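Duplicate of #3305? Posting structure anyway:
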């Protein structure tokens, strides 16, 4: 199938051709037709499969064919959980609308609101926004949502994870009751499905890959190592492997900062990106990473969604996420758009339960390895010591049970 068969306009096909695309991805092939038919859509797709274009292209077509109002009120609203994702969605909107008479802009926090307010006064057809800044601007009467025809919730499950449920409900109350609703995400939890039931009307469900699965072209590797030696091991991998572009995930902001300092001390150009960094610092770090002037980007899960880095070869879980679904989002940063990629996880004794949760989610066993010279302590081996990988059980106490309990607490 080609884009020509999806019912898109010549202007959009021209923009698609300029970007070098010829064949739609599975999610684009499945989502674009029902959206063009003005149906509500609930779409589940692996990150990196082109789902942004899956809603952007039909959205632009609908707006370009609709009645244009003189003051250009907001007619399409795209909500995203992070600033980086919002900026990248806008890049897609502008690229695909190059040959259309449509205006678009993005609003998010962490930067001065005054330039955003001035831009809104000029009128905008497509507004990409994070929930908090959108509500702030609405409360300042800098924008109206009374004319929104299409609402898109991108990475809807992440918005709930990040605590945006209340903001989303406030925004929904500001929108016209009659509108088209599109929910896109890599995974859908029970909470998301409940949210969808309250928003969508007779939705079409489209799915490009089984829910909560990882891309086939991602090679997943687990290395067992003590927590205190993880920094040394990852520096060894990057230095000896000659890795040029590596995205590394940590669980905490302080952990990201500490690892970045160790990388720099080892002669590896690195930068951290997380919620405590200013928007300017985050933009600079991401820009340097894309250009290749920064070799390693150390990130918390705020960057697991929305980082669109073409042909990213390596993703490393310096620490496994305590939410299994986040593993899917993290490693989905590699193996994108048909390219192969490598996802490495450094697993300490304390993270064995996280591995089991991830395996349960994926429905597959993840094989682990040990690097010579980085063998974990003997106690780490115990949970995986049996052939059937049964949880390790403590031996029953012999003799005085009270003494046994006292010793076990030391």
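Output from current build:
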């Amino acid at each position: 199938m080609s884009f020509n068969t999806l019912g898109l306009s010549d202007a959009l096909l021209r923009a698609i051709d300029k970007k070098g695309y010829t064949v739609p991805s599975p999610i684009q092939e499945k989502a674009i037709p029902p959206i063009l038919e003005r149906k509500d859509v609930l779409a589940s797709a692996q990150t990196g499969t082109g789902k942004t274009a899956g809603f952007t292209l039909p959205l632009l077509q609908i707006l370009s064919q609709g009645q244009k109002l003189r003051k250009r009120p907001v007619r399409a609203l795209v909500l995203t959980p992070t600033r980086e994702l919002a900026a990248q969605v806008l890049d897609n909107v502008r690229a695909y609308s190059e040959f259309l008479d449509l205006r678009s802009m993005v609003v998010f926090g962490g930067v001065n609101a005054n330039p955003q307010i001035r831009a809104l006064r000029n009128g905008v057809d497509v507004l990409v926004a994070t929930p908090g800044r959108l509500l702030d601007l609405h409360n300042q009467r800098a924008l109206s949502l009374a004319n929104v025809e299409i609402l898109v919730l991108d990475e809807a499950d992440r918005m709930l994870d990040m605590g945006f449920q209340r903001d989303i409900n406030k925004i929904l109350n500001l929108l016209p009751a009659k509108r088209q609703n599109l929910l896109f995400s890599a995974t859908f939890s029970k909470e998301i499905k409940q949210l969808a039931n309250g928003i969508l009307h007779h939705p079409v469900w489209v799915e490009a890959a089984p829910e909560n699965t990882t891309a086939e072209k991602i090679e997943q590797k687990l290395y067992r190592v003590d927590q205190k030696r993880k920094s040394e091991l990852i520096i060894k991998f990057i230095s000896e492997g000659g890795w040029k572009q590596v995205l590394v995930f940590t669980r905490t902001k302080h952990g990201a900062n500490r690892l970045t300092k160790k990388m720099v001390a080892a002669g590896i150009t690195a930068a951290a990106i997380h919620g405590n960094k200013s928007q300017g610092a985050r933009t600079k770090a991401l820009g340097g990473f894309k250009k290749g002037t920064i070799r390693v980007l150390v990130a918390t899960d705020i960057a697991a969604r929305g980082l669109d880095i073409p042909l990213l070869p390596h993703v490393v879980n310096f620490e496994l996420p305590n939410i299994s679904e986040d593993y899917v989002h993290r490693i989905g940063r590699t193996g994108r758009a048909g390219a192969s990629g490598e996802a490495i996880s450094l697993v300490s004794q304390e993270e064995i339960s996280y591995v089991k949760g991830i395996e349960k989610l994926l429905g597959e066993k993840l094989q682990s390895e040990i690097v010579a010279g980085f063998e974990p302590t003997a106690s780490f081996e115990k949970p995986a010591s049996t052939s059937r990988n049964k949880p390790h059980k403590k031996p029953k106490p012999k003799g005085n049970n009270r003494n046994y309990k006292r010793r076990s607490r030391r």
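Confirmed duplicate; merging threads. The longest helix spans residues 51-65. The two ends are 66 Å apart (CA to CA).
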